[in-house]
Structure to design on (167 residues):
């Protein structure tokens, strides 16, 4: 039996046409992935150039005041955007005001999107409601879920107000 399997494996390894047909059958039978919409998802799928890989390493070793300069030299748009977002969340004062305004708006829109990833405020509220509907919560869990709900509602109200002010 082992000899038969090894012989079949050898035939597959040696037959380029068969390998290509097997790969085609496999890839054509899979559900296609949805096109990524957020920068965190777009980072995967293609390799970085050696130059951008070196710049990314330099970015992480450099103090915040100098990181934006490094980000601007990256060739890959995905890295420029992701690096800018890292700076936005950790040292926003180092970014130009118009960039901070854009990222504030994008972040707020993502927070209240019903399909926001990884978890928008709206989706979080839906999950809290599902947990409560399960009706197997003790008093402590119910109080915790109520506290989360209050926080999420407050946060959603604040984010919506921010977006209304920014027009």
């Amino acid at each position: 039996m082992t000899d038969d399997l090894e012989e079949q494996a050898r035939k597959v390894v040696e037959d380029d046409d068969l390998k290509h047909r097997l790969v085609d059958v496999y890839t054509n039978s899979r559900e296609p992935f949805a096109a990524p919409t957020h920068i965190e998802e777009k980072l995967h799928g293609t390799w970085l150039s050696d130059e951008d890989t070196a710049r990314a390493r330099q970015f992480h070793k450099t103090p915040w005041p100098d990181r934006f300069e490094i980000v601007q030299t990256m060739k890959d748009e995905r890295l420029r955007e992701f690096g800018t977002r890292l700076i936005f969340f950790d040292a926003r004062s180092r970014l130009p005001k118009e960039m901070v305004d854009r990222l504030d708006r994008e972040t707020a829109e993502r927070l209240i999107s019903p399909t926001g990833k990884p978890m928008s405020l709206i989706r979080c509220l839906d999950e809290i409601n599902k947990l409560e509907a399960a009706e197997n919560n003790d008093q402590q869990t119910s109080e915790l879920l109520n506290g989360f709900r209050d926080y999420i509602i407050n946060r959603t109200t604040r984010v919506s107000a921010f977006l209304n002010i920014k027009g």
Remarks:
- The CA atoms of residues 65 and 94 lie 6 Å apart.
- The longest helix spans residues 139-166.
- The chain has nine helices and no strands.
- The radius of gyration is 24 Å.
